[in-house]
């Protein structure tokens, strides 16, 4: 049997971090995930999915994720029931995250966290005539990805 959920979306709220009586960290937050196809009216619909994450990863999510941040969640679907204050049975669907990936850089003024790039060792010096300019992390190769590319079918290799 298989119960696997993979989601990419934006946080609808800051993660709420709590601790169980035994001291285990648990964080919960909402994730807004766009549906892949528009509805009959041509509008894109969004699902708002409850996410629960445990232990050290819960603490990292609470520390580095905030409302609006882009994140990927890999986990399993869990349906639980409880009785509310009025005595009614309530069913809740949520994704229990096994891994959470931070997909954007977030606030640049915040301290560097797990989403910061790893420092790279400097390459060995090359003669000045062969040295290419060093790539900068700030250069976003996808900054123009909304631009149309003028390409003909003859240019495609397939």
TrEMBL record:
Listed Basic and acidic residues bias regions: 128-139
UniProt xrefs under PROSITE patterns: SSB
Source taxon at top rank: Bacteria
NCBIfam families cross-referenced by the UniProt entry: ssb (TIGR00621)
The protein's role, per its UniProt record: Plays an important role in DNA replication, recombination and repair. Binds to ssDNA and to an array of partner proteins to recruit them to their sites of action during DNA metabolism.
Protein name: Single-stranded DNA-binding protein
CDD domains per record: SSB_OBF (cd04496)
Species in which this protein is naturally found: Alicyclobacillus macrosporangiidus
Keywords noted in UniProt: DNA damage, DNA recombination, DNA repair, DNA replication, DNA-binding
InterPro entries, sorted: NA-bd_OB-fold, Primosome_PriB/ssb, ssDNA-bd
Ranges for region Disordered: 104-158
């Amino acid at each position: 049997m298989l119960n696997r959920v993979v989601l990419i979306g934006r946080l609808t709220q800051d993660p709420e971090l709590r601790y169980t009586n035994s001291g285990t960290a648990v964080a919960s937050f909402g994730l807004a995930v766009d549906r892949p196809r528009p509805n009959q009216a041509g509008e894109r619909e969004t699902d708002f999915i409850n996410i629960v994450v445990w232990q050290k990863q819960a603490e990292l999510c609470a520390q580095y994720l905030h409302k609006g941040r882009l994140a990927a969640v890999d986990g399993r679907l869990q349906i639980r029931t409880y009785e509310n204050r009025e005595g009614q049975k309530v069913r809740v669907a949520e994704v229990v995250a096994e891994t959470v990936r931070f997909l954007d850089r977030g606030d640049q003024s915040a301290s560097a966290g797990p989403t910061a790039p790893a420092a790279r060792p400097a390459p060995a010096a090359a003669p000045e005539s062969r040295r290419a300019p060093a790539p900068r992390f700030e250069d976003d190769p996808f900054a123009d990805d909304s631009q149309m590319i003028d390409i003909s079918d003859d240019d495609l290799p397939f």
